[in-house]
Amino acid sequence: MSIYRPGKDKKQVIDNILKDLDPSLREIARVILENMSLEELAEVDREELYKRLKNQAKQ
């Protein structure tokens, strides 16, 4: 299931995702999510996002 659905506010969706994350990942997650287009947010699911975050945190 995608993390963004049309009709929802992008900022609200991002804030909801961030509150569930480990504090050490929040800042990098915010940057990644804010740089994604609405189309990308509609296609990505939480599991895929977590994988991206873990890969980014390792770098």
From TrEMBL:
Domain of life: Archaea
Full protein name: Uncharacterized protein
Species of origin: Desulfurococcus amylolyticus (strain DSM 18924 / JCM 16383 / VKM B-2413 / 1221n) (Desulfurococcus kamchatkensis)
Lineage: Archaea, Thermoproteota, Thermoprotei, Desulfurococcales, Desulfurococcaceae
